[in-house]
């Protein structure tokens, strides 16, 4: 019992020090792994709805076209694959989950210079809108990762409080 009390007191004494300790990001002052993305291509198996593929392609390419880089960066093309798409049963609306992999291919020599994958899931009260919502989420994630200047979609908060 005394041992637990001493351990608890030691933990409480050290906790403020651990909470206040922060490492500075290694990329402070410069942008690491940033590319001048020139185009994107979205591919998927035949069982993935065509609207999901075309809408994702359109949204990512819109973000690419609206991005302006102030300095010279390695030029790349993104290859986006929707590897797995799962429809989850719901009582109301629809839910989809997808696994997406992205490769950044160098324009000069065709070499893959970066690759990664991520999982996303969406829920919509309208079953017919779930693919469009998933496409928006995929495009937003890619735009965020590659710092593309995609136009943010309007939400209820933006409609109620414009200019904030």
Automatic annotation (TrEMBL):
<protein>
    <submittedName>
        <fullName>Uncharacterized protein</fullName>
    </submittedName>
</protein>
């Amino acid at each position: 019992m005394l041992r637990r009390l001493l351990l608890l007191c030691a933990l409480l004494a050290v906790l403020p020090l651990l909470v206040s300790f922060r490492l500075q990001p290694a990329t402070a002052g410069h942008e690491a792994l940033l590319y001048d993305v020139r185009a994107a291509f979205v591919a998927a198996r035949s069982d993935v709805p065509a609207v999901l593929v075309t809408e994702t392609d359109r949204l990512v390419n819109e973000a690419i076209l609206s991005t302006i880089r102030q300095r010279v960066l390695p030029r790349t093309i993104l290859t986006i694959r929707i590897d797995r798409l799962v429809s989850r049963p719901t009582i109301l609306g629809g839910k989809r989950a997808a696994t997406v992999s992205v490769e950044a291919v160098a324009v000069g020599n065709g070499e893959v210079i970066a690759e990664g994958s991520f999982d996303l899931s969406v829920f919509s009260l309208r079953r017919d809108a779930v693919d469009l919502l998933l496409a928006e989420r995929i495009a937003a994630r890619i735009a965020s990762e590659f710092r593309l200047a995609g136009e943010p979609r309007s939400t209820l908060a933006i409609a109620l409080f414009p200019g904030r």
